[in-house]
Recover the amino acids of this structure.
């Protein structure tokens, strides 16, 4: 009986922490108390992948369409392009499972402020293409984007051409492909 009550207390404490953490992180409430709670739960939220950005919603939604690709260069001189899954190119079921990758690449990996992530991302892509007879020698991360223009008064839409920028090159090191 005593052991069961400790389990219930532990489960209840975890659920309470989790509800407070998610609510403080996801609700667009700016207050001193909420800022302090966010500071406490930040490591857990980021580690668990439960972070949420509100740039999709009003008052200031994102004004660019962006994605990240990697160009892999092999020892024999050939290349291969790897792309983070884009939601408009995959089915609804896959979107559910791969949305986290899109979110990671468009909200974090492409940003200069998150440059510390770039070497690990490049090593990950290199490992996807490991081949002992023709190993990857380098990986170049490329961000592509276009501005999202508001519709014209007549309701028509003018698309902006894609821009591309190779923002990081990683030379594979011994042990990266293991």
């Amino acid at each position: 009986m005593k052991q069961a009550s400790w389990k219930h207390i532990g489960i209840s404490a975890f659920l309470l922490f989790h509800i407070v953490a998610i609510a403080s992180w996801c609700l667009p409430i700016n207050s001193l108390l909420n800022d302090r709670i966010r500071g406490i739960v930040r490591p857990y939220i980021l580690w668990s992948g439960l972070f949420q950005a509100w740039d999709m919603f009003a008052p200031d939604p994102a004004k660019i369409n962006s994605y990240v690709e990697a160009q892999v260069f092999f020892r024999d001189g050939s290349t291969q392009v790897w792309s983070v899954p884009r939601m408009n190119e995959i089915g609804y079921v896959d979107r559910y499972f791969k949305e986290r990758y899109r979110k990671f690449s468009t909200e974090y990996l492409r940003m200069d402020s998150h440059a510390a992530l770039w070497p690990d991302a490049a090593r990950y892509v290199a490992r996807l293409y490991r081949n002992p007879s023709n190993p990857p020698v380098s990986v170049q991360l490329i961000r592509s984007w276009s501005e999202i223009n508001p519709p014209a008064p007549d309701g028509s839409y003018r698309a902006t051409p894609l821009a591309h920028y190779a923002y990081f090159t990683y030379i594979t090191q011994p042990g990266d492909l293991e």
Notes: DSSP finds four helices and four strands in the chain.
